[in-house]
Amino acid sequence: MRGEHPGAAGEKAGRWQAGWHGAAGRAWLALVLVLALGLVFPADGAFHQWATHRDALRQSSVYGILACGLTVVILSGGIDLSVGSVLALVAVVTARLAIHLGWPAWLVVTTALAVGALLGGVNGWLTARLGLQPFIATLATMVFARGLAKWSSGGMKVSTAVPEPDGSFRYLEVPALFRWIDTRVLGGNLSVVTILFLACAVLCGMLLGRHAWGRWWSAIGGNEEAARRSGVPVERMKAGAYVLSGLLAAVAGICQAAQEQQGDPETGAGYELIAIAMVVMGGTKLTGGEGGIGRTLLGVLTVGYLEKILSIHAVPESGRLMLMGVLIVLAVLTQGLGRR
User: Fold this and answer.
1) DSSP letters along 216-238, please?
2) Is residue 187 part of a domain?
3) Among 30, 69, 71, 237, which residue is least crowded by beta carbons within 10 Å?
4) CA 11 – CA 7 distance, rounded (Å)
5) For position 335, what pLDDT does the model report?
6) Interval 264-315: pLDDT, tens
7) Residue 95: CB partners within 8 Å, gap ≥ 6?
8) Are 289 and 216 in contact (CB under 8 A)?
9) CB 58 within 8 A of CB 194
10) Which range has the worst mean pLDDT, 5-14, 37-46, 80-89, 131-140?
C-alpha cells in the first residue's frame, strides 16, 4: 500500500491476531469446554438428542436478542440495565393489544417496537444529553419500566383468561401472532424465535462490521474525547446505541409474550444480567472499544448450553445462579489478563 510504513501491515495483522487469539480464542475455548462437559456427562444420552440442542437454542434466543443490543451499548462504553424491565413492559403491552383488544399483528408489533425505542431514547437522552452515568440512568429506567408494567397490568398477568365481575373467567383465543412466533419450522427442527434471534444478530453484525456507525461506536468506547475530536457525532451515536438496545428489548418482549402466551409484569427480572454475562463471556470488553456480535454469539452459545446441561442434570436454579456469578468474574478477569 502506497505511503504506508513497511511494518504497518505487519503491525495491523499482529494486532488482529492478538485480538483473535486473545478474547475470541478464550471465548471459543469456553464454548468447547462446555460442549465437552455435555459429551462427557450426557444425562443418559439426552445431550446426544437434537431436541436438546433445539431447545437450548430456543431458550437462549430471548437472552441472545437482548445481548445483541447490549453488545452495541457496551462497545460504545455504556451499559443498559433496563432491558429486562423493558422486555416485561413490552410483553404486557403486546399481550394487552393482541389478546384483549384484538389489534392486527402489524399494529401490535409497531406499537411494541415504538415503546422499546422510546425507553431506549430516554436512556440515550439521560446519558448523552444530560451526562448521567449509564449505570444510574439505566437503573432509573429499569425501575420506572418495571413499575409501569405493573401499573398498566394492574399487577396481574395479561392472559387469555379474562376475569368476569361474578368471579368466573372468560377465555379468549391465542392470537395468530403468538402462535406463529411460538412455532417450529423445518420439520419442527428450529424455533421461529431462534430465527428472529439470528436475524437480529445479522442486523447488528452488519451495523458493526460494515457500517460507519460500527466504527464510530468502537471509537467512542475506546476514547470518547478522541472520537469527538475526530468528528464523530458522539452524543447522537451514544443515544442511537440505546435506542437500538430498546428496540431489541422490545423484540425480545414480543417473543417472550408469545412463548408464555401472556404478558407477565414480573417476567424478565435478571435477564439483563444473563445477557451481560453472554456479552462478557464472548470477549467484548466492559470498558468498551473492543468486541462484536460474532463474539457475543459465542457467549450466547456458551451460557445457553451451560444452562441446558445443568438443567438436564436437574441442578437447582440457586446453583446455576451462583455458577453464573463465578463465570462473570472469571470472564472479566481473563479480559484483564489478556491486556497485560
Assistant:
1) HHHHHHH-HHHHHHTT--HHHHH
2) yes
3) 237
4) 6
5) 62
6) 999 999 899 899 989 988 888 888 888 889 999 999 999 999 888 888 888 8
7) 158, 159, 257, 262, 263
8) no
9) yes
10) 5-14
pLDDT at 146: 97
Asked, for residue 33, whether it belongs to a domain, the answer is no
What Rg do the C-alpha atoms of the chain give, in angstroms?
A: 21
Number of domains in the chain: 1
Give the helix/strand (H/E) hosting 171: strand 169-171
| Cell matching residue 102 | 384484538
Look up cell 443515544; give the residue: 239
Q: Is residue 5 pLDDT above 90, yes or no?
A: no
CA distance linking residue 207 with residue 114, whole number of Å: 20
Tell me, yes or no, whether 7 lies in a domain: no
Contact 70, 275 (CB under 8 A): yes
CATH number at residue 50: 1.10.3470
Instruction: At 116, list the grid cell.
Output: 422499546
pLDDT at 71: 96
In this prediction, residue 321 carries a pLDDT of: 78
Handedness of CA 328, 41, 271, 266 (dihedral sign): negative
Longest dimension (CA), the chain: 84
Q: Which residues of 313-340 are buried (b: 16+ CB within 10 A; e: fewer)?
A: eeeeeeeeeeebeebbeebeebbeebee
> What secondary structure does DSSP assign to 288-330, as a single string?
SSS--HHHHHHHHHHHHHHHHHHHHTT--HHHHHHHHHHHHHH
DSSP symbol at 175: P
- pLDDT, tens digit, for every residue of 82-101? 999 999 999 999 999 999 99
pLDDT one-digit tens code per residue, 187-216: 888 899 999 999 999 999 999 988 999 999
Cell of 211: 457500517
Backbone φ and ψ for 32, nearest 5 degrees, come out as -60, -40
Of 158, 140, 138, 136, residue with least CA distance to 149 = 158
Give me 4's grid cell. 504506508
In a domain, 17, yes or no: no
